[in-house]
Every structure is written in C-alpha cells, then in structure tokens.
Amino acid sequence: MSDATATKTLVTLRLTVNNHPGVMSHVCGLFARRAYNLEGILVTPINGGSTCNVWLMINEDGRMNQVVSQVSKLHDILDVRVEETDENVFERLSACLEFAPVVAV
C-alpha cells in the first residue's frame, strides 16, 4: 500500500442544529445509511441551549459535496460548514475529559 493510499484526509463538518431530542439520531442515521464513518463527534450548546454546534470529524473520500448536500436537507440543520481538521484536537479534548470530575445531577 502506498503512503498516499494509507494517508487519511480528515475534515470537520461544523453543523449548527436545533437542540432537541432526535437531532443527533437523524444526523448519525444519515451517515450510517451512506456507510460514511464518523471519526469524532463534539457537541456544544449555544444561544442558551436552543441550538448546538456539532463538529463531525470524517474522512474526505470524494463524497464531501454529496454529504454536505444531504446533511443540509435535514429539517433541524441550520448551517453546515466544512473546515480543515487537526485530528489532535479530538485527542487533546479526550485527554482533558479523562481527568474531569464526574458530576451527578
């Protein structure tokens, strides 16, 4: 296998979505139906929690325009942006969360 074949090009889709139950199920279901693997997911609330930013780290394999088009058609998706990815961001976040105290609600 050549180095070019072995190298993954990771990109991040940043979605702004309405924040209510079922939104992530719809997004992840779309990816599952298209056999498109999610390498990382990060969700943060914005606007007092009525909406969220969702970062999806995925491999760019030539279907990015199709993926963006299909995600954009989902009802609760307000905005979709493709951004360059530093895959270490998700690893650093994971390392930080390993030491975060668990808070019971």
Outline the structure in words.
The chain has 105 residues and is an alpha+beta fold. It has helices spanning 3-6, 23-33, 64-72, 88-98; strands at residues 10-18, 38-46, 51-59, 77-84. The chain has a four-stranded antiparallel sheet, with helices on one face. A hairpin with a 4-residue loop joins strand 2 (38-46) and strand 3 (51-59). The longest helix has 11 residues, at 23-33. It starts with a helix and ends in a 7-residue tail after the last helix. 13% of the residues are buried. Residues 1-5 have low confidence and may be disordered.
Major sheet: 4 strands, antiparallel
How are helices and strands ordered from N to C?
Answer: HEHEEHEH
- Principal-axis shape equals globular
Regions with little confidence, pLDDT below 50 for 5+ residues: 1-5
Rg (C-alpha, Å) = 15 Å
